[in-house]
Write a structure and sequence with these properties.
The chain is α/β, with parallel strands linked by helices. The chain has one domain: Rossmann fold (3-Layer(aba) Sandwich), CATH 3.40.50.720. It is 46% helix and 15% strand. It has a seven-stranded parallel sheet, with helices on both faces. Helix 2 links the parallel strand 2 and strand 3.
């Protein structure tokens, strides 16, 4: 049910071509925002934008790789040119890589994960903050429960998500005084391309993960998107530098 949570706001969403990012596009639009969608896969972005526009929403897309600063700069510039000042951003783009014991992990896997998950958030926040200075805004970074606790056979991913939370807190400490709120969500097991790849490698893992949660099921992407939308809204006006677990109680135990 729409509640106009983001009415009149312009939000930029990265990793918007599938999974949590695509769900966020739908949720943010439903809540009244104009959205600029950013990802590498143009065909999927174009298809999603067409659906959103057909439903009467304001949506545009920019093909970009968040690991490249120039791509992010172009995305933010085009977003502002198209829909005006940036009010909110959901930095959702991320990658996981294959499950591999640490002593067998290759440098290229480590580099890819860190470039996307850490440098990508770093690039996005710097340019989003620059666009918000003087008027304020809200930024939400997508971390993971792997940013709160260790995940076996996923050392670079775990490290990258811990880094995302560090960047979130650092930006909050620096820019809250400028009216820019920075927070993070930490999703638990969520049906998305990244998680499907992991579960395909080890079908038993899903049951092991769910057995540790108070709510033993996987999350729908929309459930993570709802939390991000709330954190981007004025209703979260006193929430800053926080990490919101959206994990069915997985990190409680």
């Amino acid at each position: 049910m729409a509640t106009d949570l983001l009415a009149g706001k312009h939000a930029l969403i990265t990793g918007a071509s599938s999974g949590i990012g695509a769900a966020a596009a739908r949720v943010f639009c439903r809540e009244g925002a104009a959205v600029t969608l950013v990802a590498r896969r143009e065909e999927r972005l174009a298809e999603l934008c067409a659906v959103l526009r057909a439903e009467g929403h304001a949506a545009a897309y920019v093909v970009a790789d968040v690991a490249r600063r120039t791509d992010v700069e172009r995305a933010v510039d085009r977003a502002v040119a198209h829909f005006g000042p940036l009010d909110a951003a959901f930095n959702n783009a991320g990658t996981g890589g294959r499950q591999t014991p640490m002593h067998l992990m290759t440098d290229d896997v480590y580099d890819t994960i860190m470039d996307t998950n850490v440098r990508g958030v770093w690039n996005c926040m710097r340019l989003e903050i620059a666009a918000m200075l003087g008027r304020g805004g809200a930024i939400v970074n997508n971390a993971s429960t792997a940013g709160l606790v260790a995940t076996p056979v996923a050392a670079p991913y775990t490290a990258s998500k811990h880094a995302v939370l560090g960047l979130t807190k650092a930006a909050a400490a620096e820019y809250t005084a400028h009216g820019i709120r920075v927070n993070a969500v930490a999703p638990g097991t969520t049906r998305s391309e990244l998680v499907e790849e992991w579960l395909d490698q080890d079908p038993v893992m899903e049951q092991q993960l769910l057995a540790s949660a108070l709510m033993p099921r996987t999350a729908a992407s929309e459930e993570i998107a709802e939390a991000a939308a709330w954190l981007c809204s004025d209703r979260a006006s006193f929430v800053v530098g926080a990490t919101m677990p959206v994990d069915g109680g997985w990190t409680v135990r």
